[in-house]
UniProtKB/TrEMBL annotation:
The keyword NAD applies. CDD domains: ALDH_YwdH-P39616. Belongs to the aldehyde dehydrogenase family. InterPro entries: Ald_DH/histidinol_DH, Ald_DH_C, Ald_DH_CS_CYS, Ald_DH_CS_GLU, Ald_DH_N, Aldehyde_DH_dom, Aldehyde_DH_NAD(P). GO terms for molecular function: aldehyde dehydrogenase (NAD+) activity. It comes from Melghiribacillus thermohalophilus. This is Aldehyde dehydrogenase. The keyword DNA damage does not apply.
Amino acid sequence: MDIGHLVRQQKNMFAEGKTLTHMFRKHQLEKLKIALKRYESDIYETLKKDLNKSEYEAFASEIGFLYGEIDEAIKHLHSWMKPVKVKSPISHSGAKSYIYKQPYGVALIISPWNYPIQLTFAPLIGAIAAGNCAIIKPSELAPNVSRLIADMVQNTYEPDYIAVVEGDKEISQQLLEEHFDYIFFTGSVPVGKIVMEKASKHLTPVTLELGGKSPCIVNEDAKIPLAARRITWGKFLNAGQTCIAPDYLLVHEDVKVELLKELIAAIESFYGKHPHRHPDFTRIVNRNHFERLTEYLKNGEIVYGGIADEKHLTISPTILDGVSWDDPIMQDEIFGPILPVLTFTQIEEVKKEIAHAPNPLALYLFTENEQTQEWAIDNISFGGGCINDTLMHIANPNLPMGGIGSSGVGQYHGKASFDTFSHQKSIVKQTTKFDLSFRYPNSKIGLKILRKIFK
């Protein structure tokens, strides 16, 4: 495929102005929902092949999410597209001020393997709603899903509007050499740095959805059995291969023993006595990641789990105690079904602990104390999160999703997706019925009036 030619085709199509109308964008969103429904059974099949995802998990964490996002965009698209009138200061007497929403042009969307359907089409919904063309690069690590995405898009859209380019990292590098108008990347921090560096060549704006070591704090006043169930669900969904999964536990020492007991009970309740053999427990994406994770099992003490099945690339949900920030498992995002446990005695200590890996993508806090809740929100820097739950903030289209610092740049979901793919163009519409002479350099009273206005 001639990537340069494809980009030029899309730039030409965008220049014709076809994507600018509400009717066009709404129709394209409707076509996307129809395509998802038509290919739903194929999506289940390919997710099972690549990651061993169950139909329940595939619908709950990928497809159902997208239906909601599309419906939200269609419902509110007209109001999102409208120019927003804003106040004009007294210095602009007679003028009206507006913010117009302008699509960037041709967007590049690079998606990951862990939620390959959701994290491909969620940003595409924003790109379409905002009036852009788009080229999608799915992850080669989920090859069956990648081929399906290519088929879906090819059978739904013309390539000069929405297209898919498949391939390995060399293809990604070729794409990043092109002059796109916007780049949306979801993936690891090291690759995110490369994307930002390549984008800087053309001063292309970017959204980087990255990750980091997202802490889960359990205070002494938490409802422990409930916390254990919600932590177990959030951590071991997709075998921990979730960018906003709880990466490690910070638990008050007074409730540590009880929490560990309840975590084990929750794991066995969800996945049985032998989770690594459960037919619907997600496998590790490839052998390299499997070997990386099995090395982490050598850190600390295995409280529960620790079974690695090399043949099926599965690792049972594992709890590790006795780890420290010097251990390899605490040096990088785990991205797997292993949960290290650290303790604290005073809630204020957690800020210092989290500072070892600052600016996580998510933070989860379990406590009944509202002052403690507000203290954590105000004093710890993180992308987003939940109080007394895990992961659920991502499922609300009214909440922007994004990181801070090393965990990412920019936000999306719901209106935030539309805003991400739109340039806010500021316009002043000035009256011609009169002219304020004090603005001109020959005015004798201009300085006096300006000082009164801006004092």
